[in-house]
Amino acid sequence: MLNVALPKGRLADKTLKLLAEVGYNIDEITKENRKLVFEDSAGGICYFLVKPSDVTVYVENGVADIGVVGKDILLEYAPDVYELLDLKMGKCRVAVAAKNGYREDVERPLRVATKFPGIARKYYASVNRDIEIIKLNGSIELAPILGMSDVIVDIVETGTTLKENDMSVFTEITDISARLIACKASYQFKREEIETLVAKLREVVK
Ligand code: PRP
């Protein structure tokens, strides 16, 4: 039995569609309910629905053998897991954004609101810019609107959130997409099962 940590939220539907495409039964999961564990005994697979930023925790602990997670989470937390496959979905960018018309004052540290302090620090270190991090967990766009930060470092997918809040991308930091990851120990013990799934997914991932 392969234990799989799946992210709830915006990657969930796309991941389930991919699993269905390679022949797994996802009927139970797609039903409207609050269940968190689903077993497909015929397919030899058990799914856990977890918060996206927790997928790596389950995989690092070996509770899940594999998982699906955004590259943003891998860059931010550098978990001790194998990255097996780019699933080429959930494509977006991590970018610096600011209110339209914003002019940077280079004489003082830049106040950066973000849920990715690691990515932000690394980026600004690479361009030699002093910053102050304001760590938030969501609705990052509010920070510059309320004057709490100068810019944000955040995910931009369609750009709608920025547009509707009178903001624009200032600089792009990196492209990201969903990745299939594996627990290092599981990869030794369940290599065949994992590689079979990877081979099937590779066929449908374009
Ligand atoms: C993310 C991100 C942006 C938004 C970007 O937030 O932090 O706010 O999506 O998407 P868009 O470019 O398609 O508008 P999320 O929806 O994950 O919620 P959060 O504010 O709670 O982080």
Short synopsis of the structure:
Heteromultimer composed of HisG and HisZ subunits. With 206 residues, the chain is of the alpha/beta class. The protein is 32% helix and 32% strand.
Provide key terms for this protein.
206 residues, alpha/beta, six-stranded mixed beta sheet, 9 helices, 11 strands, binds 1-O-pyrophosphono-5-O-phosphono-alpha-D-ribofuranose
Please, could you describe this protein's structure?
GO terms for molecular function: ATP binding; ATP phosphoribosyltransferase activity. This is ATP phosphoribosyltransferase. The strands form two sheets. Strands 2-3-1-4-11-5 form a six-stranded mixed sheet. It has a five-stranded mixed sheet with strand order 8-7-9-6-10. With 206 residues, the protein is of the alpha/beta class. The longest helix has 14 residues. It is elongated. Helix 5 links the parallel strand 7 and strand 8. It starts with a strand and ends with a helix. The protein is built from nine helices and eleven strands. The structure holds 1-O-pyrophosphono-5-O-phosphono-alpha-D-ribofuranose (PRP). The site of 1-O-pyrophosphono-5-O-phosphono-alpha-D-ribofuranose has 12 residues, from strand 9 and helix 7. 1-O-pyrophosphono-5-O-phosphono-alpha-D-ribofuranose binds next to strand 9 and helix 7.
Overall form: elongated
Strand arrangement across the biggest beta sheet = 2-3-1-4-11-5
Mean residue pLDDT: 95
Strand content: 25-35%
CA-atom Rg in angstroms: 19 Å
Largest sheet: 6 strands, mixed
Protein name: ATP phosphoribosyltransferase
Family: Belongs to the ATP phosphoribosyltransferase family. Short subfamily.
Main location: cytoplasm
Pfam family, one: HisG
